[in-house]
Amino acid sequence: MATATSRTGDRRISPVFLGIAAVMAVTGWAVWTGFSANLGLAVFLFVTSGWIVSLCLHEYAHARTALHGGDITIGAKGYLTLNPLKYTHALLSIVLPVVFVIMGGIGLPGGAVFIERDRIRGRWKHSLVSAAGPLTNVLFAVVCTAPFWLDALDGVPFGFRFALAFLALLQVTAAILNFLPVPGLDGYGVVEPWLSYKVRRQVEPFAPFGLLAVFALLFVPEINHAFFGLVDTVLHALGVQDAETYCGQKLYRFWQGEDVFCGDIVNR
User: Fold this and answer.
1) Most CB atoms within 10 A, among 8, 28, 54, 73?
2) Model pLDDT for residues 17-31, shown as the tens digit of each residue
3) Which member of 59, 116, 192, 244 is catalytic?
4) Burial label, 21 (beta-carbon count in 10 A; 0-12, 13-18, 19+)
5) Model-level pTM?
């Protein structure tokens, strides 16, 4: 009986996650209705909580797929509760991604759940475990942009529309970065099972520096332009225009003051 209770507890949704989701719901309502006296602050809280929710779902997807792949230790580690505090490194998983959103408006791939890979059999299962996280970001982006590509924006307040556009941008950047076949990122985890043992051993020492190398390269103007050009192309395909993501980011950074162009649109 105690074992059954423990297993149920391992999978019960964390109050921490429910609290974050509640903040997202309440602030989303405040943005939609204009209830908040400070629209920018409401957008900030809505997008930030939405981003944290997506990070939790990203890690949950890894964990759930690993569980079905054979790692039965996942539940005992608390990964199935959606509690961000249960991740192997909460600072890397939650705090740094949020800081990067505030500073640069880019979806930094988060930390990780610790998966006992030796329990998982089959290359396809290993690849799927790695792909599950960024695929969650893809799904989140599709949901955020649904009003855009469904041409269902009539009646959607501009503030909420811009917030969704910016949240979608974060999901798209996170998905693209995560799918890069760079050691330390999920994209490399997808291809790693198909590489020879010799290649994997040679690449392994560089894994801790993969993400740092990617961000260093993003400071190269040509690479930065190509990356955000790809992000814009994806967003355009989903019906989101540059002005919408721009205004979403401007509203999000409410401490910088209101942008005249975006303010005129919101206040129409």
Assistant:
1) 54
2) 999 999 999 999 999
3) 59
4) middle
5) 0.91
